[in-house]
Amino acid sequence: MKSETKPSVCVVGLGYIGLPTAAVIARAGCKVLGLDVSQNVVDTINRGEIHIEEVDLDGLVQGVVARGLLSASVEVAAADVFVIAVPTPFHKDGADGAKHAPDVSYVLEAGRTIAPVLKHGDTVILESTSPVGTTEELRDLIARARPDLRIPGLTHETPDISIAYCPERVLPGRILEELTNNDRSIGGITPRCARKALAFYKRFVRGECVTTDARSAEMTKLVENAYRDVNIAFANELSIVSDAMGLDVWEVIRLANRHPRVNILTPGPGVGGHCIAVDPWFIVHGAPEDTPLIRTARGVNDHKMHHVIAKAEGLIEAHPAAKVACLGLAFKANIDDFRESPARFITSRLVRKFGPRIHVVEPYAEELPIEFTDTGVAQIDIDEALETCDIFIVLVDHDVFKVVPLAERAEKLVYDTRGIWPDQPRAVREDAARLKLAP
Ligand code: SAJ
């Protein structure tokens, strides 16, 4: 039997996706170089430590660094496989339709970085969520930088390198498990490219790996997150409608979900994170005339944040002597990720209006984010909040909040945007008629 040598791998971008991916590939026995622009991130990883919070990642990184399988650098080096996992944000502002336009500059920069070290036989895989056509754009950039290489899709001969798109699908908080067990869509620039990338993923993915073309794989990733956004929008719209009708949305959804073909998601204070609130725009931007539903869902989910702010403001104004606790800043439960978080946005707006009457409870934050500096607002723990605060605004469904027994919160006035305390006697929905809500 042919003895097989394991490919050396370079992972470009050591963030929430890149670092766990690098560690899982290293665990499979491949020698991995992680590349990042931050010297601080590189130094942290080379000490066997991590700069992000993710279940079991610390032990894994420590182990693979100690075994010499993972190292990090700010300098690129030759490898057999390159995995690009850099951010693809969108432009938040900008005139002339630039608002919400995808920004693939980090992907192209990664392409420029690896191009000089590419050699015959290498495979380049893009994992970053990208608008349709980005893998071809990356391919064209590599072709311009390396006219000496035969590039897939641009040559009639056997290409020197392979280029493919394979989006990550992992859920923060379950990244290591999902990296290994989720199915993967692998889109090649050509079928041969897809087969090369498939052979690589088979080394560490237990889920099924399905091959397709690069553009379909790009669209698949966007569609997955847009699907979830549209479904969350439905739940959020229901919560606003139920509110207006004096109904308990949690009860309505619980009952509707008993239907065998109905599965309504959970309302919340809006949709956060850098995937579901972003990726649908990549589809809308690509086909603005043909995406009324996807665009509207984004609007509904963004509007939910403002609905919560208005309702919370009405509640706090109606109780001028009350001390207020805002529970959670993270974009979802049990993680320390505060980027694009509705809870953080809502809390900061309440702080701007009510100042130190607001107290922030966020067990996953060592300190409050920058916009809370000099506001006089205190970060307290849940025990202190239960002892000292009168109004509770639940913005994140962290487990540590969920387990607070009724006896400890029965007297509190609660606005529960996540439905974690369904038995709360003094819940805002019962007071809704008495609240003067901002328009
Ligand atoms: N949310 C609700 N109600 C729900 C579900 C979620 O309000 O019923 C909110 C959350 O609180 C959060 C936001 O939506 O603010 C997004 O959370 P999420 O758990 O739905 O998703 P993410 O952003 O953590 O990860 C998503 C996942 N995509 C899908 O489930 C289709 C993940 O698999 C992707 O890998 C990830 O985006 C990504 O990187 O694209």
UniProtKB/TrEMBL annotation:
Keyword vocabulary terms for this entry: NAD, Oxidoreductase
Keyword flag NAD: yes
Matching InterPro entries: 6-PGluconate_DH-like_C_sf (IPR008927), NAD(P)-bd_dom_sf (IPR036291), UDP-Glc/GDP-Man (IPR017476), UDP-Glc/GDP-Man_DH_C (IPR014027), UDP-Glc/GDP-Man_DH_C_sf (IPR036220), UDP-Glc/GDP-Man_DH_dimer (IPR014026), UDP-Glc/GDP-Man_DH_N (IPR001732), UDP_ManNAc/GlcNAc_DH (IPR028359)
EC identifiers of the protein: 1.1.1.336
Superkingdom as given in the UniProt entry: Bacteria
NCBIfam families per record: NDP-sugDHase (TIGR03026), PRK11064.1 (NF008286)
Family: Belongs to the UDP-glucose/GDP-mannose dehydrogenase family.
Protein name in the entry: UDP-N-acetyl-D-mannosamine dehydrogenase
Organism: Novosphingobium decolorationis
Lineage: Bacteria, Pseudomonadati, Pseudomonadota, Alphaproteobacteria, Sphingomonadales
